[in-house]
Amino acid sequence: MPLWNKEKDGDDKSGLPESTLFATDKFSRTDLLICASNGSIYAIHKQDGTKLWKAKIGSSAAVISLFVTDSDKLVAGGFGKTHCIDLMTGNIMWTNKMPGFGYSEVSVATTPSKILYPSTVVPTVESSEILPPHYDQVTEDKQIIISCSEGKAMAIDLESGETRWTYNCPGGWYNIPVTIIEPSNWEAGRPHQLVYVGSGKWVYCLNASSGHVIWSVQVSNATFSSDYMTLATPWSSRLAAESHSAFSQNPSGQAMSMQRARERSS
């Protein structure tokens, strides 16, 4: 795995938010712990907590959601915007201002770039008794960021930051939608990746590439409710067991939105 040693970055002259690199020693992606607080994102070293870089993306008035891709990009959502940040330097590569999505918390996730499928090579009886299953790595389509806020979902090209599609969830109101992305499965006859979106009392299943609505269903008929939803699948829960940090497990963004709603009504 390559190591990186970058010089200090100053202010970005393109109008993007400011980022600063503090590191003087070499570090790799496996050394990084990313945290966000009070409008800034920090990369710190997992071994001793040393600050490696800082990126300022907004004020201290909202929660910032984080997602690290397998191509060394950090996706950050907050204040009604989505940012793509170089994982190794903190340099902000692009910002999508998400017109029409307001200025609240943004939930973010990306489609995977590679999927593991069972290998077509059948192992011998002897080896199958002692070895784990063999898998082939299959490259998926271009990665897409799914950013959601205020009852809407947006697909953003990971490389360029351009908007691919938007979807205004009927019945989603102004809630923060949560998402689960499911990779394609050729054996099951599903050649495209899916995005499950939960917002308010509704769940929507979308084609990740096109935004086409495959199905939608109102799961609750409650008259009095908070209108917030969480989602889980067996596989997403297995992944969450290792991260312990996701909107559906720790809905801090939803809690902040509810607090603001109470303040407005008082």
From TrEMBL:
Pfam family, one: PQQ_2
InterPro entries recorded: PQQ_b-propeller_rpt, PQQ_rpt_dom, Quinoprotein_ADH-like_sf, WD40/YVTN_repeat-like_dom_sf
Region Disordered, annotated ranges: 246-266
Residue stretches making up the Pyrrolo-quinoline quinone repeat domain: 38-106, 152-225
SUPFAM superfamilies found in the cross-reference section: Quinoprotein alcohol dehydrogenase-like
Coiled coil segments of this chain: none
Polar residues bias (residue ranges): 246-257
Name of the protein: Pyrrolo-quinoline quinone repeat domain-containing protein
Organism encoding this protein: Helicostylum pulchrum
